[in-house]
Amino acid sequence: MSKLQRSFYARDTLDVARALLGKYLVRMQDGVPLVCRMTETEGYVGRMDKACHAYGYKRTRRTETLFAPPGTAYIYLIYGMYDCLNFVTEPEGEPCAVLIRALEARYNGDLIARNRYGVPMADMNAYQRRNFLNGPGKLCKGLALTRAQNGLDLTGDELFVVERLEDLGLPPHPADNEPLAIQAGKRIGIDYAGEAADFLWRYWL
DNA sequence: TTCAGGATGTACT
DNA sequence: GTACATCCTGAAC
């Protein structure tokens, strides 16, 4: 199995944010892999980005994970109710990360649906299907990720990324054959961040 | 389909 | 005390 190694994450944050699109996130839950295709990301760059929790290298208990080695999971609580999953990027000491904003289920979707709604995929209604994993809080719920997983090493066996489903011994998904068409736009929910609110650091397929 | 409003608790000032 | 990298519900159209 060829999971992405630390060198993949130890580069420019925006390059990583784009490179993650179309790749597959694997979350091991009770020894079973939950597999999703990543379809939307955002970059956060602490050294000059007011929207980043560690803007200006601000070091607090919460932001400590952003200073960990690249390829570390940064998971924090937002609005008192929801968790957000990020991947730490750039050389260690640069507090940067990529927020995972949307996924599409590819394997063991029924387990993900149970995490999210308590029912298998077949029992999801149209509204639930449309809003399955299309938001950072939603996808954490579906993959059973909380602050308990903050600091996880993405080169380990519990949470990692692969380039192709074949790397997991799974057949390719018919919907994933087309060449990637990457779009860029403003990031979501950071109106407070001054000029940084206008950076086109959100990417999606 | 769109919109307003509320839930909820931690981090930081 | 204030803000927050969000989501869901219910009402109106």
Please sum up the structure shown.
With 205 residues, this protein is α+β, with helices and mostly antiparallel strands.
Q: How is this fold's topology laid out?
A:
Layout: H1 6-9, H2 13-20, E1 24-29, E2 32-45, E3 73-78, E4 82-88, E5 96-107, H3 109-117, H4 126-130, H5 136-142, E6 159-162, E7 183-185, E8 202-204
Antiparallel strand pairs: 1-2, 1-6, 2-5, 2-8, 3-4, 4-5, 7-8
Helix pairs in contact: 3-5
The protein binds a DNA duplex (13 and 13 nucleotides) through strand 3, strand 4 and helix 5.
Structure notes:
The protein is an alpha+beta fold. Strand 3 and strand 4 form a beta hairpin. The chain is built from five helices and eight strands; from the N terminus they run ααβββββαααβββ. Strands 1, 2, 3, 4, 5, 6, 7 and 8 form an eight-stranded antiparallel beta sheet that branches. It binds a DNA duplex (13 and 13 nucleotides) through strand 3, strand 4 and helix 5.
List keywords for this structure.
eight-stranded antiparallel beta sheet, alpha+beta, DNA-binding, 5 helices, 205 residues
H-E string: HHEEEEEHHHEEE
Instruction: Report Rg.
Output: 16 Å
Question: Based on DSSP secondary structure assignment, what is the total number of beta strands?
Answer: 8
Overall spatial form: globular
Arithmetic mean pLDDT = 96
Low-confidence stretches: none
| Terminal-residue CA separation | 25 Å
Strand content: 25-35%
**Count of runs of 4 or more consecutive helical residues:** 5
The structural class is alpha+beta
Helix proportion range: 10-25%
Q: Mind describing the biggest β-sheet?
A: 8 strands, antiparallel
